[in-house]
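> forwarded from #structure-qc
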């Protein structure tokens, strides 16, 4: 549950910076940047590696400002958490249209979420079947309709195309 975010130069592969969270709100599983703020999910697990009395319901998305000060936080909706089993949210990205797309650890599905108008729970818009079996995801910076994922068991990168409401605002 000790976490940090590391920044690397993609061209030179040199380390450029680190933000250490120590033991904070769980295990940092993904980060994405939107409107100069960082959004980080801190996961909790019911399986080995989790904290006592903290299951995936404790998984939290935290918004940080440009100085890494906490601004707001949200939990994931029950309709998503109930599908995670012993694991948690493992990947997430914001589309250019402002949609939040997340993955769990094992299920081949994407969770399309939005921020609530009130309250502290993200709202589920859709569950989209995919060939990505959970874990990390990324959008192609030159074509935001192209989604990359991984299959850890097969050591493969999976490339897919977003369509419909999950890819636009």
């Amino acid at each position: 549950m000790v976490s940090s975010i590391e920044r690397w130069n993609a061209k030179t592969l040199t380390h450029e910076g680190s933000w250490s969270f120590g033991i904070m709100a769980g295990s940092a599983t993904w980060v994405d940047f939107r409107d100069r703020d960082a959004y980080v999910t801190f996961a909790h697990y019911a399986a080995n590696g989790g904290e006592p009395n903290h299951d995936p319901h404790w998984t939290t998305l935290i918004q940080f400002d440009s100085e890494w000060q906490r601004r707001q936080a949200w939990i994931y909706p029950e309709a998503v958490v109930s599908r995670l089993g012993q694991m948690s949210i493992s990947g997430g990205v914001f589309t250019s249209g402002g949609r939040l797309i997340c993955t769990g650890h094992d299920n081949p599905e994407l969770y399309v979420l939005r921020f609530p108008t009130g309250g502290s729970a993200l709202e589920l818009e859709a569950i989209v079947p995919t060939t990505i079996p959970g874990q990390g995801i990324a959008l192609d910076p030159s074509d935001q309709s192209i989604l990359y994922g991984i299959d850890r068991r097969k050591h493969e990168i999976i490339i897919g195309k977003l369509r419909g409401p999950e890819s636009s605002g």
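QC bot note: The longest helix spans residues 78-81. The chain has one domain: 2-167.
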